[in-house]
């Protein structure tokens, strides 16, 4: 009985304790709005107890259980002033006021640290990652297209391809790629990254911001910081994914069978049409075969899927973040081609003591891709529609009965090969793994003033390329009598060790900081390759070496590689008075093993004046922020050839001879050698840049923007020049190139009731000029193997690599016009067997001397756009949202090499616009030549006829979504996306986005992507 009474007393006491504990807590509910009564997503915490808190939802509503003793709550939100309110009642309505210093307090990632945006004296562009992840792209840099001033992104349609990225023009003949810094590690590109893993991305465009990276910064610096957890953060699991399909867009329409037959007859190729009719039927006006090669080569749809899982959280002393991503992108070429990657991201940070933090971050990227044979797209432009893709009548064709151009009498050869067979008989696979681990230690040596950070960043990448060609036969040219295997293994092993000492202090209105740093780095790359013939077709036998299948070659192996190291010392100092007068100064000394000149020195300085903080601006109500800034500095580019500080021995057939040939008996090859004894002390290229800009925000921060003018001059430009009276060339620093222009960005954000909207626009102008070539008159350049026929030219006071040729003034309409033109009359006198006829192109006599000579060749434009721009519009209403982004360029030109190749291959097909526009009689066309004229040498010279405008405007992205909550604790968003759904351009090609120097020899087409996606957090 006593035990029962004791148990009853204990139970009664326990419930009384629960009742008292419950009575000590209460629930506070409320709503957070702004001064316009619009709901705000805010953080609500108990004063002096920051671990007790919650966030308001999209409607501004919140509910928080607080201790009975709590008397105040702290409410804060990005863009608003934080306030403290009384918690004496259980229902609270909170109104936040906009923060006038919003644009000043934002934290921006800069080199080796962060700065308040208000303290910046450099034009550092921050990327809105919420907008970036709306794009269904495999590379994060594709998402920047049209979104950041000063940055041009040229995309490719091939799965997993790397876009071309240019920051403020081109200042080098060698390397134009920016430096990427991913969590402290230097990278050549960031294609391996999952955009959902990126927390912050900053673009350092000018010398003041980028000089801290010294010899690697000449082409701009893009800093990427990946997601991290937070202390005292509840575990949060987020899934974000989408699935969709890619559709070819802007497909180039080629001449069909009837058009090609008429064109062939008009230019005298009757035998092609007659052979096709005899072989496959029909008649000369309506052949039985009319193959649409692009339709045969392209899929109607290609699947794209992307799945991301992110876990973040933290306790009192440890934070963590974990992410996993899977991307699978099929290519739109109707053959095996895809890009597939798995990403794993891990991060943890431990606050060991009040003065010690340690952290670890790792990225693991595993990828596999099947690379397409892009030659198929070139051949599809050439291929005649008068023979079929598949021809069962070709008995010798094996193992697949592909058709052959030889069947209708067109000469065989690479350009006239069956493009479908080219795509089919291709097996080029690449797979690999990349690991980027980094370890760091942060020491607080003097609380809130002096810190030390040491970080070791590593990169290990291993790739394996396997290329296999099977035995097959189509015709005597498109064939493979022996199978061929090439296997290549490559490794990158890099490391960077950074040591940073930072001091920050303030006294009254004076604030300053000093960063001292030291960095050591090493980069190694090695590739080994082997090859063999007669390897079986089954992949299990794809090995070359002793004991393997196949027959290895004595010369079927090789090895390449390099090893560079460097050490750097750098410093940065910042000072501001009352957050009004700003100063930033940096200096970096870089030592490199690549050059005989071991050290380079790169200073920079930036000044800023925040006018909106001056007393004379206090009474005005227009500007919330008005800041003027200017900067100057030097940058380096070590992405050029290293020193060749020794004699180079050249061998091979060009340096050898055959002796002992008598009659029909061949002699013996005797190897020869030639020594190149000339070399110079090569050093890195140096960029000198100054920048002036204005940052502003007005109308209660609803309208904001930046305006910058930049001028960057690349000195010590490195290139190879000939040695007079010799075959040798010498590589050195000879030239100077300048890039200048304006960058303007404007954004408007506002809310009307429940409707929120934002409008943004940006534009960048570019003027590129070559200032010095070291005494050379010019340098001729161009597309490989076609540079002599259709050259690009580098010349002083002209843009880099401009197209060089004659200006077309129209088409000769009749014989009278020909006889009245001194150029045509003289040409016909000298060439009576092949005279100029009506329907031929008319060239402009630039110097009016009556002759078509070298002086009549002019600048026909180049590949760099004079203006790039982008527009963004966003709407949100309650749970619904919609955004549209547009992007475009103008002022650039493209050399349509597809049409120009008719110079060597007159039997090739033509695009429909070309055939339909041909001159057929007086007054029919003043743009296109006649059919006969289209293959006459007079009309196939380098001229403006083959140079077209590269201007375009593209609907870059459209996304619509709906957000809601499940059980009040699981936010969900579903969305639909159209990526690159439409483009508007006058260019006669698949796409005006052509990389390199703008020569279009049929690139992999860009596709539109339509997808459905889902995002949820738990």
From TrEMBL:
UniProt key word Glycoprotein: no
Signal peptide residue numbers: 1-23
A Pfam family of this chain: Plug
Topological relation to the membrane, as annotated: Multi-pass membrane protein
Main location: membrane
TonB-dependent receptor plug domain residues: 118-221
Subcellular location(s) of the protein: Cell outer membrane
Keywords noted in UniProt: Cell outer membrane, Membrane, Signal, Transmembrane, Transmembrane beta strand, Transport
Superkingdom as given in the UniProt entry: Bacteria
Keyword Transferase: no
Sequence similarity: Belongs to the TonB-dependent receptor family.
Name of protein: SusC/RagA family TonB-linked outer membrane protein
Organism in which the protein naturally occurs: Sphingobacterium suaedae
